[in-house]
Amino acid sequence: MTESAPKRLKTGPKIGTHNGHFHADEALAVHMLRMLPTYHDSPLIRTRDPDLLAACHTVVDVGGEYDAQRNRYDHHQRGFTTTFPGRRTKLSSAGLVFKHFGKAIIAQKLGAGVPQDAPEVDLLHNKLYESFVEALDAHDNGISVYDPAGISAAGLEKRYSDGGFTLGAVVGRLNPNWNDKRPSDPDEAQEAEDARFYKASLRIGEEFERDLDYYATAWLPARSVVQKAFDKRSEFDPEGRVLVFEGQSVPWKDHLYTLEDGKPTVLYVLYPESTAPGAKWRIQCVPESKDSFVSRKPLPEAWRGFRDQELDGISGIEGCVFVHAAGFIGGNKTFEGVKKMAVKALA
């Protein structure tokens, strides 16, 4: 019933989860635990035997019990309704482990003695849940992205299947097929299944760690850059409708929406294409929401789909490079030129 891969001595506190068909939530839960020093060398027991699970230090996704004091993190029991703070999605084992251990994982990633109660840890804890873990919780609990009744009432139908595109599908494909040849010896069969689970846990864990790395090393440092530009926005437009990154563009959408605090004012973001001297500049429209393709104020329809001198003539602005046919982004050779594009687009 013990994990067969990788082949190394396991000396940490035992982690237990169920055997049989595995899912993304417990695969990620196990990986997140093993990211911490306490569990780094923990053996994994995959079983539904209550006695074997009782001997485990930490149990996820099986056992019918949620008790953080006893390190029991199951969500299948009747009456379970726990959610992540500020969210409505019922947690799976991934969400439960992230709720209780996520801040330790994040503080460890930030290093430099950052405590778990630091504001930046709390910020990343919420961000990683919303951007990564919550979708796994919803998938495992059978919660649709949109209200099915509302979708049906609107007469909307999916244009294609996106099942193969999800992390749940990635993990699901690592399960054995129903007609795969199974070793006749029960221990060998379990070892083979455990080896597949280990690959699944590592696979989804790699994706989680990529997100953690991005948000900790790129997204979080961008916050101060966006804050600085946001504070100076009235220098470029009295009504604060233009945000300018004078040195380098950074991931700005999440931070901008947070800084606006429900009061959308910024319509265009201006930034250089690179830090090289003489770099061209871009003007990008702010979307209505983070995941929307609809701009708050698209660039003028007459400019869309034109380039270079032809666009100069249409816009009356020198140095134009392009405006996308959808009107959400454009470019100019200079900052002065792109600023004029913003001024005309605002008018």
TrEMBL record:
<dbReference type="GO" id="GO:0005737">
    <property type="term" value="C:cytoplasm"/>
</dbReference>
<comment type="similarity">
    <text>Belongs to the MYG1 family.</text>
</comment>
<dbReference type="GO" id="GO:0005634">
    <property type="term" value="C:nucleus"/>
</dbReference>
<dbReference type="Pfam" id="PF03690">
    <property type="entry name" value="MYG1_exonuc"/>
</dbReference>
<protein>
    <recommendedName>
        <fullName>MYG1 protein</fullName>
    </recommendedName>
</protein>
<feature type="region of interest" description="Disordered">
    <location>
        <begin position="1"/>
        <end position="20"/>
    </location>
</feature>
<dbReference type="InterPro" id="IPR003226">
    <property type="entry name" value="MYG1_exonuclease"/>
</dbReference>
